[in-house]
Every structure is written in structure tokens, then in C-alpha cells.
Amino acid sequence: MMAGALTVRLPVLGSALQPPLAQPDASWIRSLYDRGNVTTYLKSKNELQYIGMPVGGIMCGTVYLGGDGRLWLWDIFNKNQEGIEPKIVNYSANVLDGGKKVRSRDGACYIEPSKNIRPLDQGFALQLQWGNKTVVRNLDEASWPEISFEATYPIATIRYIDPALPVTVTLEAFSPFIPLNADDSGLPVTILSYQVHNTGNTPVTATILGWLENKTAIYSAGEAQERVNTVVKGKGWQGIYETIRTKTGSNQEFSKKSDYGSFCIAAAGNKVIVNPAMQQGDISFTASSTREAIKPVNEKLNGSVATHHTVLPGKTIRTDFAISWHTANLHFKGIQGEGRYYANKYKDAAAVMTYVQDNHDRLARESRLWKNTWYDASLPWWLMERTFLNISTLATTTAHRFSSGRFYAWEGVGACEGTCTHVWQYAQAVGRIFPSLERDTRERVDLGIAMMPDGGILFRGEAEKRPAIDGQAGTVLRIYREHQMSPDNAFLQRNWPQIKKATLFLIHQDRNGDGMTDTPMENTLDAVWDGEIAWIVGLCIAAVQAAALMAKEMNDAEFATICNDYTEKGKRNMEAQLFNGEYFIHQPDKIKGRSVIGSYNTCHIDQVYGQSWAFQVGMDRVIDREKTLSALKALYKYNFKADVGPYIAAHPGGRPYAVPGEGGMILNTNPRNEEFPFGVKNAWQLGYFNECMSGFEHQVAAHMMAEGMTDEALTLTRAIHDRYHAAKRNPFNEIECSDHYARAMASYGTFVTACGFQYHGPKGYIAFAPAMNKEDFKAPFVTAEGWGSYAQKGNQHTLQVKYGSLQIQTLRFPHTNVKKVITSVPVTFREANGFVTIQLDKPLQLKAGQQLQLTIA
User: Fold this and answer.
1) What pTM value is reported for the model?
2) What is the pLDDT of residues 395-416, one digit of tens each?
3) CATH numeric code, 122-368
4) Which of 185, 415, 681, 773 gets the highest tally of CB atoms within 10 A of its CB?
């Protein structure tokens, strides 16, 4: 860390802010390793107002769970807007183009976080009766002296606290979220499960009422339409179905509107109190005799459901509600695909509700099982939160799934189309949690509609006419990951000819044959750079090395030789020519020199990104270890700032993704103090170099973790975590070019390297090498067909499958001086370089509820 860094506020591991510190001191860094507890935000500390946890199913639009348990935002109407709240805010410094206006894509919600966006009325209320007392409370922030929010994505726990009442009230809110099951995780529904516990000595009657306004066709409805609420019921549930119709009876044209659709609110049970037309301002806990209610679109129409329970002293009741929606008319101009995938199975919101209620026990059980498996870890609780919660981006309007099954995404909400390869290749989470989505995208898009005759991959699919060099390399690496996250070789075999073409395209960008790509081409910093650029050269080397490994599996010795020749030359020349003795640089084009934009002698955040990617897919080194460590240490020395304030004041022009008083890692710094370090003087892209973009920061943290720089990895990740503390902004919305930015899902990579996790499904290979708490370690894992927990305690290792199945034949752990391996199945083993590799005599399939235990002596 640079000497002389100024004051910074660093939150402690709870939710309170601690006094200013000049530097994170040794005791604070040690505290980062503590297991700690769930991050809990409190009303009493004004920490609820910005919370917006996506709880609407992956690729189903955006519905936020607020800090007080109410749902808000409701970006489900296919408006395709840029940002969760399109707006322009004033800022105190110039941003990118020299102006002082910040758009959604520039970080408007970082400067002025959104809150209280409620296009429709929704809420819950509680009536309590005991003795001769009756109390009615809305379940919202204004009505309770204290509310706590536990930020455990994908299931949040909210507690409504009032010591004067004879009950405690708890809400668990979520949409079904089950790794490896993208369909059941992609339901347009929110489940709200309330528990009421009687803390007193007398019975309490508790009635919970939920209501939902009918706002179907929220933008397009007019005088020709009317909204209709109808009582519906199924096996063990009742509710209100909310839709809209044209008064003349012909709905055919109107039903094509982008915001056309339906809602449903329901409660589990056979004695649900239903009311299709709850009176405005009247929280009624009595049933209605009306089975249908109709109102003009200019009049408010709320449907409600309620459940009634007697809670005996010391007992707890649980009552489950759900809200579903169906707005399937999604369309993007010029894109091959439209409609929403969920509409293939469900014709309306009532059909969604029927499926959810019929399968409620399983959906809730498996979702809770995942939550409990994920957070039952020895790694710091805050780290488990930050490395995982960014996958909630899938449950926002950043990500979509067309009726054809095609995955399609922006970079951030409504900004920069086409599932951009040079951004999405950073996002490690999706390929590990929902690998089927990534396999399909590689095959259908990158190796399909986006593939050019020469092997180049259009970096925004059909929305672009050229490849991006870093996106191309990252996509080859993703293909290797997708192969590893497959149960067999079918994906690789089916796509091998196209994979070779994509790899040869990379190799052909090396014009002088030295293994270092030097063809001017677009990259993620939105410019065409000339010369030999360390981060791109290294990324291409890693990609071609991955292709060599795939070629070996395909018994394609000739192509493996081509790839290995390239990587050997590239590694040798990169280390000789692009390492300046401290870090890796950008060697200018011999003709153009520094007349075009580039990073040149600066210290660039992605300079050893190729090696970082290699660790994500279990590859050997592609860049020398000592030089790589030197580069990472230089990044921490020059680019990490405990307080970014003084730096951005001296280097204006970047977007405000970190502000004075916050820590972060600057994209590019100028250790040699050159007058024009980036070649050109006035390009708008120069602003990028002075920013803290969390996706890049997570990538570096993941790499530092893999290289043993755990202090630095945790400090950097904690800086990001603290920037998104709920006292300041939404913890679930890491912002770059618009909200819920895809690159932030690089955070999952830090979890991967913290576990030292390696996996190759077709080979039946799994490995762990914990980066911390090595003698008493526990963490979840996800494989091609199953997930569960891995535990290491002393010399004992346990793999426990919780869901699906796991087929293994080879395991690898860090151990030395191994004399024997004790387990329930016949094995052989070999020891090398501080690791023991254990070979089972034949493949072993573990199913849910089964485990494999090994003792290494």
C-alpha cells in the first residue's frame, strides 16, 4: 500500500461504521479471516432504505425485496430501460466526456442510490389478538421500532421486532434458486414465508394479510380496457388472479403489447381469506363474497389474501404466500429471439402459481438446502456473501432467456447489448452455478450465429460486425470451463471443429510469429490498441493453452503441437520483452509508437489476467510465478488505495464507482510519472484508467488468493464489500456500465481460488487446496450434476453430496509424506510437488445423501 494514503472509513465486520483509520492496520486485516456472522442491516441504523435484493427468478425481470420485506421496483414489463431507474444526476467532478452529469451507465445509482420505486401497491399486514387486545401492524419500516435484514442471498431473513408484542415475526423471502436447475430457478415468482412465534403465556390469534395491485399493461392500458381480479384456487392454496381485457371482448391485438400479462397473489392453505377488491386504505381481515372484481384502468384494484392462525404459548406457525407474474412479450430489435422462456410452460401467472404451489415443498426445501450449504462454510461469512450475491444479476433485467431457450444479456441493465464476450468472460459465477446456460450460449451463439468464416467471434453476437481480441480469448477459456463442467465429452466432441477455428483465429493475430498477439483489435476498454499488450498477450496464451489441453483430450496431436508451440514462444517472449523488472507493460507498435491509446509503461489492473484465468480452470502456469507475484505486488502498491479520494481528485475524468472515503483498486496508474502515460491526451476512454470497476478488482482478488496473497485478496474484496454497505447504497447492485453489471460476477472466482477448487467432469476429477483455515476447512462445491460440501479436518477429507450426483475417480489434495490413504473403496495414490493424487480403482458415483471420506496418513 502506498505510503501517505489518507483517511478512510472502513466498516467493521458487522453493519456499523467504525472511526476513520489512516490505513487498514494489522489487527483489522487479521479480522478479515474471522468466520464472523451474517451481515445484518438494521432500521435503527438507517440501513434498510436502499436494499433491493433481486427475488424474482433468474431471467424473469427485476423484482426487488426491500429492507423491510416489501417488494419494489417491478421492472418486469419489458420496457428495456437503461438502469434500474433511468436518470441523470449532478456530480462534483468531470466524468468521461468532460461533463458533470452522471447517467445510469456512468454510475447514477452509485451517487444517488434508488429507493422507494413502487409502480404498484403491494404489502402485508399483521393482526394480533390476545386477551382483550387487538393490534394491527403493516409489515413495513414505518410500523415497527426495529427491523433487521439478513443479507443471505438467495434467501433473505427479515425480523420484525417489538418487545411490547407477545410474538416475534420472521419473514424468509426468495424465489426458488437451485444450482444446476435453471428452469426451476427461472420462475417468475416470489415466495414470502412468515413465521409467528408466541413468546407469551396466552394464545395469540395471528392473521396475516397480503395484497397486490392489478397493474397489468401498466403503460399501454387505456379507456378501451378494464382490469379484472378473479378468485382462483388449487390443491392446498387459494388466491387472486389479476389480468386485463379489452371491453369489446377482442383481446388479440392488445395481448401483443410488451407490458401485457397477468399477476397472481396466493396463500397456502384450505381456509384462505380471499378478496378480489380490497378497499383502498381498508386493511380488512374478513372474507369477501365476491368472486370477481372489475374496474376501469384509472381506478385502483387490489386483490388480497389472508391466513388465520391460533398460536399457542411457546409455539410457532409458518404461513406461506407467493406472488407470480407473467409478462412474456419480450423483444429486442435485430436479435434472433423473443418472448420469455417461462412462457413455454406457463400460459399465465395462475399457471405459474399452480406449478409453484404443487411443487412448493420441493422448491422451498432445495432452495433452503442450497442456502444452508453455501453459508455452512469455514470461510469468512462476509466473503461468502460478497463472492456469491452478484449472481443475483441473473435475476435482473441485465439477463434474459428467450422462448427458444437462448440466453441473452446486456452488460448492465439495459446498457450495451449482445452478451458481450469481453465483459461476460469475466463472470465466473454462471458457468459454475448454471453450467447448462453457458454451454448453450457457447454453442448456440459464440460458436454459432456469432462465428465468422475465419473463426473470429462477433463480440456482441448479431449486434456486432467484428470480434474483440480479449473476448475471443476469454471465450475459448470459457469453452474449456464449460467442457469441465459437463458430465461427459459430448459438448467438446460436438463443437471441436468450431473450437479449433476460434483458437486458430487467436493464433493468426500474432503477425510476427513470436507468440504475442499484435493485431490491432477492439478490447473491453472500448478502443483499438496497437502493439504487444501484456494483458492481452497473456490472455491469448492462456486460451491457446486451454485449446491444447482440449486437443489432447480429442486425440488431435497435430493441433496440440500447434498450440503448444504458440504458448511456449509467447510465454518466453512475454516474460523477456514485456516485464520491466517490476510489472508487465504494453510494448508499443514499432511504427505507430505511442501515437494511439494504450497502457504502455503504466501499471494495468489486468496485466496478468491470463494467469488468473488459468487458475479458474485448473491449468498450470502460463506466466512465470515470480514475475507474476511481482506484478500483483506492484498492483497492490501502486493501484490499491485505502482512500481513492486524493487519487481521483488528482486524476479526474473517471466515472464514480468509488468516491472519496472509500477504498479500491485503480485501473491504471503511472508509477514512472510520465507526462502522457497513455499515449494520447484527450481520448474519452482515458477516464476508464482512473476508475475502480469492481469486476476487474474481483478478478485481481481471485488471482491474489490463488497466489497466496490472501491478505491482499481479502483487503481488496472487503473494500468492494464496504463500498456496497447498505448504509450507503444497495449491497446487491455492483455498478459499472449501468446497474447489476455482469463483470462483477468475477467475484465467484475468488471463492473458487479460496477453495483451491478444480474439477473436470468428463475425467471424474476433483481437487481442493484451501487458501486459508487449511486444518479445519469447509466449503460448498458445485459440479456438473450435483452439489454439496467438502470438509477437511486435519488429515481427514469428506465429500458430501446434498443434491444430484457426483461421479469421481481422481481426487487431489495438498499433502506431503503420505504413507497410506484409508477409505471405503480401493485406491492407489502418488505424491508430487506437495500434493497427493488419489486414484479410485473404478469410477464412484455419489448420490444425494451419500459421502466419501478419506483419511490421509
Assistant:
1) 0.96
2) 999 999 999 999 999 999 999 9
3) 2.70.98
4) 185
